[in-house]
Amino acid sequence: MGKAHSRRRVMVGAVASAAALALTRTRARAAEPVVHEVRIKAFAFTPKLLNVSVGDTIQWTNEDLAPHTATADEFGWDTGEIPNGVSAKVEVTKGMETKYFCAFHPHMKGTIVIM
């Protein structure tokens, strides 16, 4: 009975270790930066609301014929002009402005939520 009990402890320990390792790997993957895609089409940002984390990247791709920008409301960041068929990126930083618009077409608006 002593050997069976020891073997059970070893098995339980091995399973617990494997579970802890899997959880650690999952957390490490979740912390990796993500690239979030925003399409500019029909004079709108899609999606209009974007949930991101610090360190992620937001990429705007212009599918309209007209040029556009993604510009923070208080001008803290700006993609510059994005011509048709071109993409521009901004890295998400702590405390960055979260409301933005197109400088050429101010009715176009978007919001970033930093989680």
TrEMBL record:
Protein known as: Plastocyanin
In the UniProt record, the signal sequence range is 1-30
Query: Which InterPro entries has this protein been placed in?
Result: Cupredoxin, EfeO_Cupredoxin, ET_Amicyanin, TAT_signal
Q: Known PANTHER family for this protein?
A: BLL1555 PROTEIN
Q: Where is the EfeO-type cupredoxin-like domain?
A: 14-114
Is Cytoplasm among the key words of this record? no
Keywords associated with the record: Signal
